[in-house]
Each structure stands twice: as C-alpha cells, then as structure tokens.
Specification:
The complex is a heterodimer of chains A (about 525) and B (about 375).
Chain A lengths: L2 H23 L4 H5 L4 H34 L5 H13 L2 H11 L5 H26 L3 H40 L3 H6 L9 H10 L4 H27 L22 H27 L2 H6 L4 H54 L2 H16 L2 H12 L5 H5 L1 H25 L4 H8 L4 H12 L1 H17 L14 H10 L3 H25 L9
Chain B lengths: L11 H8 L2 H11 L6 H22 L10 E5 L3 H15 L3 E5 L7 H9 L8 E4 L3 H8 L3 E2 L21 E13 L23 E4 L4 H14 L1 H16 L3 E4 L2 H9 L5 E5 H9 L4 E4 L10 E9 L5 H11 L2 H9 L30 H6 L1 H12 L2
Parallel strand pairs in B: 1-2, 1-3, 6-7, 6-8
Antiparallel strand pairs in B: 3-10, 4-10, 5-8, 5-9, 5-10
Helix pairs in contact in B: 7-8, 7-14
The chains are: A mainly alpha (about 525), B alpha/beta (about 375).
C-alpha cells in the first residue's frame, strides 16, 4: 500500500465528499435541534420508518427467490433474466411509479408507495442474494442434496445467504426512507401520504433558517447510517467472505416441474420492474393514447405511432444533444476519477491499519446517507469564493460534485473486492521489489477488473441520473436529466417520453456494451 | 485466494497465479528480479498509458464549459419557452448569455436558494422569476437593484415595485380546469365549489406548500383576512383527510388528472390549462369568483441583482424582455401568458385583463409574510 497514494486519495475524499457536509453541519444552532422533537415531525419520522421496513420486506420477499432462481437453478433464460432484473435499480423510482399509477389507477397512498419502491429496490437484494448463493461450496450442497433433496439444500443454504440478503435489505431501506417523490406522486388521489423526506425538502424551501433545514436532515441521516452500519458489520463478519482456494463452484440445481413456474415468476418481476415502465414510455413517445383517442384503428394508430416516435426522437435529440453530451462527459469523467481513487482507498481499507480502514469505511457511508440537496448546497457554500471562481464556473465543478457524491460506491465496491482477494500475489511482488503503486496497478487492478468496471458503470449511472444535487450547482445544470424534468412540467408527453428513453439508453449503454462484448461479468460484489 | 471461475480471462500472469500455488509465483518473482520482467505486466502498463492518454483528451474538453459570458440570467420561467427568447436576444445583441434554468421539481425556489447562497460572490445579473412572491422577498432582503426600465412605462402600477426593484409582466391566472365530459363548467363559479359534495372525490388541487399554489394561499390571507383564510385552509385539509379533495404534487399533475378524466375538475394555472387545450383534450377554463374576490393573477417578474457582475448588459436585457413585443410573444407561446398591458396583441384564447375581475393583492405584504405562511401550511399539510 503506497502511503502517498492513500493520503492523496484520502485528501480528495475529504475535500469533495466530506467537506460539503461539514460546511453544512456547522450552520446548525441549538434552537434548530429543538424543533426536531415536535410531535408532528416525530410522527412523520415514525411513518417513514414504517415505510422503510415495509419496502425492505417486500423487496426481500421478491429479491431472495429471484436472486436464487437466476443464479443457481436450471430455470430457462436465467442468464438473460439476471441482468434484466437489475435494471429497475437504474431507472428513477418515480418513473416506475408514474407508469404503474396510470396502469393501476386504483392503487394509491401507502400501499402503492410500498409496492413501487419495493419493485424499484428488489434488485439490491437479488444481487446480494445471487452472489451469496454462488459462494456456497458445491461439495456442501451436493451432500445436502444427496441427503434430503432440494428442501435440504435450501434449509442448509438459507442461513448462509440470509446475512447477505439483509445487507441488500438495509440498502433498500435506506433508499426508501430518502424518497419523497414517489409517496407524493402516488397519493395525488385520496388522503395524502406524507413522509419525513418531504419535511427536509420543504425546510430547504425556507431560507431564513438554514440551520433548521440542515438539522431536519439529521434524523434521516442517522436512520440511514443505522441501517447501513450493520451492513458493514455483516460484511466484516463474513457475510461477503472471500472464497477459499479449494472452493468448488456449485452446479445448477434442477427444479424439475417447477422450472416453468419459476420462469413465470422471474419474468413477471422483470416485466413489472423493467419492461412495463420502458414499454409505457415507448407508448407515450409514440403518442398512442392520442392516436387511439382520435378514433384510429390499431393498424393505423401503430403506423402513426411509428412516425411520431421517429419525429419526436429527432426533436429530442436535436434539443437535448448538447445536454446529453454534457451528461456523458461529466458522468464518464466522474467514473474515470472515482474508479482509481476508489481502488486506492478500497485497497487501503482492507490492507491498511485496521482502525483507519474501519473509520474510512464508515465515513464512506456518509455521502450516501446525506440528502442530495444538502450535498448540493454544501458544495456551493464551499466552492463559491473568489479564490476558486474559475473552478466554480467551469465544468469541473459538476464533475467534482458528482465525484463527492458517488466516490463512496467505488470505495465500497473496491474494498469488498480486495477483501475477497488473497494477499499472496501482492506479497510475492513485494518480495520481488515491486513498488506499492506498481503492485496496485499491475497485480490488484487486473484481478479486480470485473469489480472495477462494475464500479465505473455504477458511478456513471448515478452521475447520469443525478438531479437533486445537480440542480443547485450552476455548472451541473446543463444535463439531460434536468432537461427531462423541465420538459415534464409542460406535459409534452411524446417529447419527454422520447427524451427519457434516450437518457435511459445512454445510462444503460456502458453496462450493455460490457455485457455484450466482454467475457467477464460485472462484479458489484466480490 | 479466489478460485478460477469458468469464463474468467484475466491477464496471463494473473491466470498463472490462479492456477499455481502462491509459492510458485513467489519463486518466479524472486528469480526474475525487481523489474519483474513479465510480458503481460508490461502490456498492462501499455494499456494503462493508452487509457490515461484517452482520459486526458476527454478531460481537456471540459475547459470549454467555463468560458466567461457577457450576461448571466437565472430563469425560473419554463426553459422550453424562455430559452428560444434568450437565444434571440443573443443573436440580436451579439452578447453571450449564460442562462441557468430552474426545474419544475424545484418550484422556483432552487434558483432563489442559489441567489442567497451566492450572495458572497454573486454570479447572476438578472433574475427572471415565473412568480412574484419570492422576488418581493428577495427585494426586501436587499438582493435587488432599482432600475426604472423605459420598457415598463405601460405596465400597471399593481405589477411594479414602487422602488423599481422588480417589474411584473406576462402573467398566469389561477383557474379551474374542467373536464367537459365529466362536469359542466357553467355550474362552477366560486372557490367554495371545491367543497361541494357533488364533486366529492372528483376534484383536486396542488398541495399548497410550494409554487403558485403557495402564493395563492398566501394571497388569500391578504385578501380575505386571517380568520377567513385559515377557515378556508382548514376546510381543504379536512376535505383531503376525508378523501373528498385530492392534493397533487403540482399544477401540471392536476391538469393531467383532469385531462385524463381521473378528476372532474381542479385548480391549476392558465399555462398548464393551455397545454391540455392545445392537445385537444375535452377541457374548459373557469375564472372563479368573478362575483366575489376575483381571480388571482400571478405575473412573471424580472429584476437586476444589486451586485450584478454585468449591470449594463443586465439593463439591456430587462429593457428587451419588458418590451410589448416579447410580452406578445409569450402570449402566443404554449405558455399562453396573459399580457398585463391591455394594448399588447394576443391570441383569442388568451383572455384580456379588461374582460375579467382580478384579485387585488398586496404582493409586497404577501412576499414579506411568505415564510410565515409557508411554515403554517407545512404544519397543517405535512403531518
């Protein structure tokens, strides 16, 4: 481990990921904290905790069987359904809710919020569950299979998989309690379903007491940290343990007559979380509701729809070309910075001094737990000065904002991957005289290629779809995501739907290209 | 060490490490000496250099993002309508303009927040707001400079700050959008129709916490007085709790719910209504309370920042924006903004101020009390 590299990476992390949050926390006064204990806010917080638990439970109920079926069984099309099952995570949850609210208008309020957020977050659990099932030694499984068949296998494996699934559920909980768009949207009809994230958002809309706004974010940050900290503990205790050198990969389990019902279940889940939202967008891009309302038959409506899609995509591409280019440039550069810095810090967490490693790991959760709006304002407060004027006005500010927000994902993915990598090769190269940085570039990085590409893709995706933090920083304003939300207001449904599809395509592109042409899988988990 | 998996195809040296015990690797490293000498390792460095070169080329393109403009405008009016106008101003004057647009999700406050946070080093010259209350609040806090634009000469005094720190133009009205398949527009005429049992569960408005709905509710205090305004808000709250009145995330959403027949009618803005009208939806507009307090008109406002880095260019832009031609163009746009000057040419569907009774609002008082009203509404509607 190169001390210079680690110090430089830590400095970057502190400056761009932690300093904006510290700048905001310094604004809190004692009176601001007192306001947190009103009955109204406590009631909101209680309702939000209930929502988080309900969403995590639903995501767990869908994610565990889905993860098991696509990773470990002979279910038809499992290899195709597995990556498709991760797609809902890449789509904005509000988009999923907007789609389903049109299709199932009767489902509203808390049940709808739980259903749509559960659908958006189940991939977090299925990804963790799939990897956990893959890490079970084939010999153990074979023994269980011989003794008691598939039931015995599941009885033996579920306790081993449960910690990993709970880690995924902790993330689902964290995502759910921070979402305010979906609860507000789905309770447009019927009594309003308010959540605590709304309180934070509205406090930001008031300006006279910035300390109150920051203070109101503290309970949600605390709740998110409380949910994510056990995830780190579970990882430390071996929930995501490295595999031994004599590990034998388990063979696919035969489902027998359950193959097709299992396929139907997974297909339904993928359809609900991915095909339906994207299909609905295409439907709107083609202006099919208008064509059908004008009395056109299906054949004629489809023909008109194809023409509409063609022209609306042209309009969307023409109007949003520059913003789409900015989004791609910002997201690609952000990912290109985050991956090496994340590798250095992830490696440092695992191979460096234990206490320092744990501290950095815990601090890495903070930018994930903090509301985006807090991060955006913190960045403005920190960098809008005469001395940094050139930087603040340049495109670099957008990149540094995104680096601060999303570096944590690269750090945590790399740390997990390094933990699963034996130290022998690094020790051998060290004995041979290779410098720490050379060992990192030549030995560690190639072994973690799948994880590094995964962290690149994940950071790219998050930077592409960022809205809440980007709104506040001038340099980050000219992005495709902001243009989509500007368009939504005026209800230009075909244009906005076309723009959404273009954006979704751009978001998915790097992951798709890697999946199509690379021989190695993306490894978000080791 | 991780076992080799099917499909794993790392560099050769790494594959060797996967296959062989670590002792063999150690031995080979020791034999080869400090420079290692593995061809695959060299290849990794070569790839790294190429990637680094490509990354540097990519990053160099970012420098262009920071070029200095002649004028910086923060625009809360919808980008889709304001951007072409700003580009026209650029081509007519030769000035390079950087426009920062707010998004609907922020309901204007995003840019206002930025103006406040940037107070120590102002970046903005002109603030073009799509409503009035926040502009008045900014003026009260000393953010805005006085400028009596010659183009504002024909604008009625109601829409101008007595101290010339802001000027109103091109307004929106708060109206009922009615789905004519589900309700007869002639049967609606008052804001109290919201609570008529006939429409229980079929009527909606935006949650009164942000945007023009917040300004609307705050204005009711100025027009109706504290007691009556509070009573009205409490009726809204209890009706929502009973499921009789629906509260949507925004006015655009109310428009969609009515347009699609999920609601019979609801409270929205004229610009949202016009979108449904242009799409051919079965909708009609009702300007409520013509026999009572009148319909609320919320103008766009424009102001020059007190510490504007480019004050001369800012004045040029304000003169241009307040001209009758631009106001007429905004009336002809999809936003269908209502000109505040009676003599400005407009399309037939944009109703004139002289044809209707509009609510008489003391916008200075509304702006000054906005935060207090917002806190009250937050306590009522976010529980």
């Amino acid at each position: 481990m190169s001390r210079t590299l680690v110090i430089a990476a830590l400095a970057l992390f502190a400056l761009f990921a932690l300093a904006p949050l510290v700048a905001m926390l310094l604004r809190i006064g004692p009176a601001d904290v007192r306001d947190l204990f009103e009955m109204r806010t406590l009631s909101l917080l209680g309702r939000t905790l209930f929502l988080g638990i309900a969403v995590a439970s639903l995501a767990f109920a869908i994610g565990v069987p889905f993860g098991f079926l696509v990773a470990r069984t002979d279910m038809p099309a499992a290899r195709l359904l597995r990556p498709l099952g991760a797609t809902p995570l890449l789509l904005p949850s509000l988009m999923v809710a907007m789609t389903w609210a049109v299709i199932v208008p009767g489902l509203r309020g808390a049940p709808a919020t739980i259903a749509y957020l559960g659908l958006s977050t189940f991939p977090l659990i299925s990804i963790f569950t799939s990897r956990a099932f893959e890490r079970i030694d084939g010999r153990l499984e074979e023994a269980a299979l011989t003794v008691g068949g598939l039931r015995a296998v599941l009885r033996m494996e579920l306790p081993l998989v449960l910690p990993a699934a709970l880690v995924g559920a902790a993330f689902a909980f964290a995502f759910a309690v921070n979402d305010f768009g979906v609860p507000d949207y789905v309770s447009s009809i019927g009594p309003k379903f308010n959540v605590y994230a709304d309180e934070i958002k509205l406090n930001w809309d008031q300006f006279q007491r910035p300390g109150k706004a920051v203070a109101s974010a503290l309970p949600l940050i605390a709740v998110t940290l409380l949910a994510l900290a056990p995830a780190l503990v579970l990882r430390r205790r071996g929930a995501l343990a490295s595999l031994g050198s004599d590990f034998v990969s388990p063979a696919p389990l035969r489902l027998g007559p359950w193959r097709w019902p299992a396929f139907a279940f997974c297909l339904t889940v993928v359809a609900a979380g991915c095909f339906v939202p994207l299909g609905r967008l295409l439907w709107e891009a083609a202006a099919m509701p208008q064509h059908l309302a004008q009395g056109a038959g299906w054949g004629s409506a489809l023909q008109q729809g194809a023409e509409t899609v063609h022209s609306e995509f042209g309009v969307a591409l023409e109007l949003a070309r520059s913003d789409l280019g900015n989004s791609l440039l910002f997201a690609l550069t952000t990912a290109a910075i985050c991956v090496p810095v994340g590798l250095v810090l992830g490696h440092g967490i695992e191979r460096g001094p234990r206490r320092l490693g744990r501290t950095v790991e815990l601090l890495a959760i903070l930018p994930i737990a903090a509301p985006a709006i807090l991060f955006g304002i913190g960045t403005v407060v920190l960098w809008n000065h005469d001395a940094t004027a050139e930087l603040y006005d340049s495109g670099w500010m957008a990149i540094l904002l995104f680096v601060g927000r999303y570096l944590s994902f690269a750090i945590l993915i790399s740390a997990g991957a390094v933990a699963a990598l034996g130290q022998e090769m690094e020790e051998a190269a060290s004995l041979a005289g290779a410098s720490p940085s050379r060992r990192l570039v030549s030995i560690v990085a190639p072994c973690l290629k799948g994880s590094l590409v995964a962290s690149f893709v994940l950071v790219f995706v998050f930077a592409m779809r960022d809205l809440d933090a980007a709104i506040l920083v001038p340099a980050a304003n000219k992005t495709a995501m902001l243009r989509v939300f500007n368009g939504v207001h005026f209800g230009r449904d075909s244009y906005v739907a076309s723009l959404c599809l273009l954006l979704v395509f751009a978001i998915l592109l790097p992951g798709l290209l890697w999946s199509l042409f690379a021989r190695r899988r993306l490894e978000v988990l080791p | 060490m991780r076992s080799r998996k099917e499909g794993d195809t790392g560099p050769g040296w790494v594959l060797l490490a996967y296959d062989a015990p670590s002792a063999a690797v150690k031995a080979r490293c020791l034999q080869e000496g400090p420079n290692l000498g593995f061809p695959m390792l060299e290849m990794e460095f070569g790839r790294f250099r190429r990637w680094a070169g490509a990354a540097l080329a990519l990053l160099s393109g970012l420098a262009a993002c920071g070029s200095e403009p002649d004028l910086v405008i923060y625009v809360a009016h919808d980008q889709i309508h304001s951007e072409p106008l700003i580009r026209r101003f650029e081509s007519e004057t030769g000035l390079r303009v950087r426009a920062e647009f707010d998004v609907e999700a922020n309901k204007t406050v995003g840019l206002v927040k930025r103006l406040r946070e940037e107070r120590s080093r102002p970046r903005c010259d002109v603030f073009w707001n799509n409503e009035i209350a926040h502009t008045v609040a900014l003026a009260g806090e000393g953010f805005l400079a006085a400028y009596d634009s010659p183009s504002a000469a024909g604008i009625p005094a109601t829409f101008r700050d007595p101290e010339n720190r802001w000027t109103g133009f091109a307004a929106r009205a708060r109206i009922f959008i009615v789905n004519t398949d589900l309700a007869d527009p002639a049967s609606l005429d008052s804001m109290d129709d919201l609570f008529d049992e006939t429409w229980s569960g079929q009527v909606g408005m935006a949650r009164p916490l942000t945007g023009t709905t917040l300004t609307h509710m705050a204005s009711l205090f100025s027009v109706l007085g504290e007691e009556d305004a509070m009573a009205y808000l409490e009726r809204i709250k209890s009706s929502n709790d009973e499921g009789a009145l629906n509260l949507a995330p925004g006015n655009g959403h109310v428009m969609r719910l009515v347009r699609d027949g999920q609601l019979a009618w609801g409270w929205t803005d004229t610009d949202d209504f016009n979108v449904a009208r242009e799409a051919g939806a079965p909708v009609a507009a009702v300007y409520p309370d013509q026999e009572g307090i009148g319909t609320l008109l919320i103008p766009n406002t424009v102001a020059i920042l007190a510490e504007a880095p480019h004050p001369e260019a800012a004045r040029r832009f304000v003169d241009w924006l307040l001209s009758p031609d631009v106001e007429s163009e905004l009336a002809h746009s999809r936003a269908a903004q209502i000109p505040v000057r009676a003599d400005v040419e407009r399309p037939a569907h944009v109703i004139g101020g002289e044809a209707l009774k509009f609510m008489q609002v003391d916008f200075a008082a509304v702006g000054a009390e906005l935060v207090q009203r917002q806190e009250l509404l937050q306590g009522m509607f976010l529980d």
